[in-house]
Amino acid sequence: MSDVGAGVLGLFGGTFDPLHIAHLRLAIEARETLGLAEVCFIPAGNPALREAPQTAAVHRLAMVERALADAPGFSIDTAEVLNAASRPSYTVETLEHQRRLQGPQRPLVVLLGSDAFARLEAWHRWRELFDLAHFAVATRPGHELTVGAGDTALEREFAARRGDPADLAKAPAGRIVPFAITALEISATAIRKRLAQGLSARYLVPDAVLDYIESHQIYRTPHGH
Ligand code: ATP
To answer: Pick from 103, 164, 102: which is nearest to 134 by CA?
Structure first.
């Protein structure tokens, strides 16, 4: 087979509008805690479920590229961004694309925060996602992960599929693994608000991202530029 890489591959999708340090900590800590070979960032093209990102996909991709420059163990999948103009992007299709690239056996794990996981039932063809990849759910302040009485379809899936990091390498897909990361109450929404008010975002985003924001004059107003 061609060079598909070895070990568990983490897939980290997000709007990244802009990429901030909690995203980077999630990726680093996922790699360490879950024993991932690599984390692939997937900037969202044209997300179907939320309002259009404030910032053009090319800018959001450029910020991810600058933040990750030369960092070993991280890569970027640009497929969603490249298709952004033509149609909405769906995670299930992104995973199908990754599955074709990586082959049927390589363990894939979608990385996401507990806020995003809680909304999973709204995702296009959501039940098929577990046939394509594992899910690893990072703690996020203000969004406690609950396994309640199992009275929603997602809670039933969670209860049935719950595993720990060691399970990820044992199968290509199908487990849901919660994991704790350093609590950082940082959101892209709050960063955009600060910047629109003329306040500093230094140390909330990597310096390379701040330089990009300043030189391209993005986030100067509440609704983009
Ligand atoms: P917004 O405020 O615009 O919704 P965001 O800060 O949540 O943005 P996204 O790009 O939407 O950023 O998030 C990408 C992924 O990163 C999601 O799975 C989200 O749950 C996770 N994430 C973002 N911020 C944090 C955080 N502070 N702690 C843990 N996970 C986070």
So the answer is: 164
pLDDT, tens digit, 9 for 90 and up, residues 40-69: 999 998 767 667 788 899 999 999 999 999
Cα(19) to centroid of ligand 1, in Å? Answer: 9
User: Rounded to whole angstroms, how far apart are CA atoms 49 and 122?
Assistant: 8
**194-206: buried (b, 16+ CB within 10 Å) or exposed (e) per residue?**
ebeeeeebeebbb
Q: Which of 33, 115, 209 is the pocket-test mutation for ligand 1 (most atoms within 8 Å of CB)?
A: 115
Q: pLDDT tens digits, residue range 21-35?
A: 999 999 999 999 999
- Per the document, the length of the chain is 225
Place of tokens 């901030």: 20
When divided into structural domains, the chain yields a total of: 1
* Residue 177 · residue 138 · CB < 8 Å: no
pTM score, two decimals?
0.94
Does the C-beta of 27 come closer than 6 Å to ligand 1?
A: no
Bridge-based pairing of strands 9-14 and 134-138 is unpaired
Could you give phi then psi for residue 160, rounded to 5 degrees? -75, -30
CATH code where residue 131 lies: 3.40.50.620
Give the closest residue to 77 by CA, choosing from 104, 114, 108, 116.
108
User: In which domain, by residue range, is 67 found?
Assistant: 9-184
